[in-house]
Amino acid sequence: MEELDIAKRRAMHLLGGRDYGRNELIEKLKNNYSEKTAVTVADLMCEYGYVDDDRYAEKLARQYITVRKYGKSRAALMMRQKLLDAPTIKTALGKYTDDDITGEIAEILRRKYYDRLFLEGLEGKKEMQKVIAALARRGYGYNDIKKALYLIQDEIRNEEE
User: Fold this and answer.
1) What whole-number distance in Å separates Cα of residue 33 and Cα of residue 6?
2) Which residues of 11-33 are buried (b: 16+ CB within 10 A; e: fewer)?
3) Measuring CA to CA, which of 22, 27, 40, 66 is 20 to 30 A from 128?
């Protein structure tokens, strides 16, 4: 068997385990085969429909935003680590509106931080800063976090009435 056939079998084996982007598949194949062979095989996989960067980016965006509850910036970072290009990432993440993101943050606040929200005095201020920092580490923007906090405040006020 020649190198191209072996590389195609390896690519099919890799794709049987999980999805890959074109560039990610090339990098994986370059570990064992020449760059020319890796690019040729990746192009063949794209041609056959086994590799589709747009579909892969949408799947990753859904995984990172809705399942793992990451913000757009962290999701974009994780997708760049999978060697997806910037326009593909932007398109995939563009499907999630600010309202979707605010809703995700509000859900996290309700589930994980509800007991710490809106405590009185200096302790409450410190706890709020910790919550905001934790959400920022997840990749959420400050404005989105503030919107979600106001949403939760409104919910609490409505419950009290």
Assistant:
1) 9
2) beebeeeebbbbbbbbebbeeeb
3) 66
